[in-house]
Each structure stands twice: as C-alpha cells, then as structure tokens.
Amino acid sequence: MEPKFVSFDMNGTLIDFRINDAIRRVLGDRLPVDIASDFLRVGNAYRIDECMGEWKSFQHVVGSALERTARRFGVTCDEHDAKAVYDEIPTWRPYPGVTEALNRLAQRHALVIVSNTDDEHAPRLVENLGAPFDVVITAEQMGVYKPRLRAFDYMLDRLGVAPDEIVHVSSSPKYDLRPADDIGITNKVYVDRGREPDQPWLGYERIDDIADLPDLLAGPRR
After folding, report:
1. Is 70 exceeded by the pLDDT of residue 220?
2. Which residue spans traverse the membrane (predicted)?
C-alpha cells in the first residue's frame, strides 16, 4: 500500500545533530579529556530523561541535562554555557545527500517532520534541509517529546491517518522506532548513523545511506 505520508525525525536523522561537539567547544578546557567521553555519554542519557515528563522548552532540556551532568562530574558550567550550546542548533546542516534524497521523495510522497525541536529553531533547520515538507510538527506543538507515545498519537491525529498508512524514518530506535512500533506503525526505516545499535527485532528496513530511501519507497507519482 502506498503510504499517505513519509514522516521523519529531523535532528540526528536529517540534520547532523552535533550537540556533543558544541558541548566540547563551549566547555573547552573545563572538560578534561580523560572524562569527556563518559561526560557526553551520561549527558545524552540525562537529555532523554529530561524528555520523559511534560513538555518544557528545549533550551531547558539542554540546560538541565548539562547542569546535571556537570554536577555529577564536578565540571563548572552555568546557564550561559547551556544557552551557547542551544544557540548553535539552528546553524547545523544536513548530512550529505539528504537534500537530494528528500527532493526526490517529494516528487512521489507527502513529507512530514516530527521533531523534538521547538518552534524557535524548526524554521531555520527546515530551511537548512532545502526540501519541501507538507507538515512540520515540533515537540512544542505536541506538548511532549519523543519517545513519549503521546507524540506519535499527536502526529497520527494531526495527519488524520492510521498507523499502517504512514512510513516513519529515523536514525534512533530509542527516540523513534521503538515507540513507533509500540503504537502500531509497522512501516519503519532505520537510517544507520552509527549513533545507536541496530535493533532489527523492531521490524524496520535498514539503510546506511539516505540516498537509498527514494528507491526503497518507490511508487506512483503524487
């Protein structure tokens, strides 16, 4: 069956989400080399933990996760550091090949973004992608962050589709593909960006290069 929409996670799947690089740059010499890898790993865990409650601004998510991580590792940071990291986000660019693949897909499919970004950053990031999207859904609009199932409920209700009428594409089993599977979205594509381990039991198609996506989803033109 031809999907009514192809939905995408944005940051980390389409946009090269370089938050660890930004944290290293902002903290500079305050982040010792010998603890940097563990610091960033724990920081990523705190960031997903911050996404599990009710909605708060993404600047708050970034700041709270960074503050918790710094406290655990005894690193000095303050709200200005968190703001500097947050302010870098809309400057980040797509992965190689993303713009071309999305424009090919847009000739055949209605494209949707469902992202943990906020309304402040979404327009700049979508502009950076250089491709047309029919709908852009942010965590701020949903009132929750992925991986909360309410985020996927919101997306399906907003689009007016059943779970089997959509294809969801993401590089994150943790944030996207696992909850999408839980809610009954059977058509899923995992773009392996090397950020998370492959979880094939979730029943997705796996690709290494997003340039392969248009052929994978080939169907009649819109």
Report:
1. no
2. none
